[in-house]
């Protein structure tokens, strides 16, 4: 996620945790919607697999679609975070 480190450096520990959880939830949803499984999260990175345990002929395509499909989704958690967490709600 571009700007993740700069963004969280300005936030409290609690707000950083909230933003990170919203980001992870968004990425995991995109992966699941395209038939993948999230293996791990680290900072602003996500490790997901497609075609395991059952091989898929289009696993690479599914991975690309999940990645591309998750990009617009980042606006929702960021907007939600700004409206609810930073405003003190």
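^ Assign residues to that structure.
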């Amino acid at each position: 996620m571009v700007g993740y480190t700069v963004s969280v450096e300005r936030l409290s520990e609690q707000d950083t945790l909230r933003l990170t959880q919203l980001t992870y939830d968004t990425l995991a949803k995109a992966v699941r919607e395209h038939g993948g499984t999230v293996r791990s999260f680290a900072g602003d990175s996500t490790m997901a697999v497609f075609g395991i345990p059952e091989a898929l002929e289009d696993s690479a395509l599914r991975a690309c679609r999940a990645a591309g499909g998750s990009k617009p989704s980042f606006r929702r958690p960021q907007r939600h975070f700004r409206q609810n967490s930073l405003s003190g709600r």
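The chain has one domain: 12-84.
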